């Protein structure tokens, strides 16, 4: 069975998930994007999210748990 293509790329700098056709991260401006990532965290309210604080996410959005 072929590997499933991911609908997002992950920013290697901030781990934000962006559209697979994006060339730049809208969160940090980095152009270092990869399809090699695992797991998703969705942050809705970063100021009140313990997970967001621990992982350093300051903006709402989708983030990868692991980026390589």
From TrEMBL:
Signal peptide as annotated in the record: none
Listed GO CC annotations: DNA-directed RNA polymerase complex
Coiled coil ranges: none
Domain of life: Archaea
Family annotation (Gene3D superfamilies): 2.20.28.90
Single Gene Ontology MF annotation: zinc ion binding
InterPro entries attached to this UniProt entry: RPABC4/Spt4, Spt4/RpoE2_Znf, Spt4_arch, Spt4_dom_sf
Stored SMART domains: Spt4
Subunit record text: Heterodimer composed of Spt4 and Spt5.
This protein's name: Transcription elongation factor Spt4
Gene this chain is encoded by: spt4
């Amino acid at each position: 069975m072929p590997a499933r293509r991911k609908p997002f790329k992950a920013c290697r700098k901030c781990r934000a998930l962006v559209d697979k056709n994006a060339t730049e991260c809208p969160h940090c401006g980095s152009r270092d994007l990869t399809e090699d990532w695992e797991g998703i965290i969705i942050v809705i309210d970063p100021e009140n999210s313990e997970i967001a604080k621990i992982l350093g996410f300051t903006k709402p959005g989708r983030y990868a748990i692991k980026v390589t």
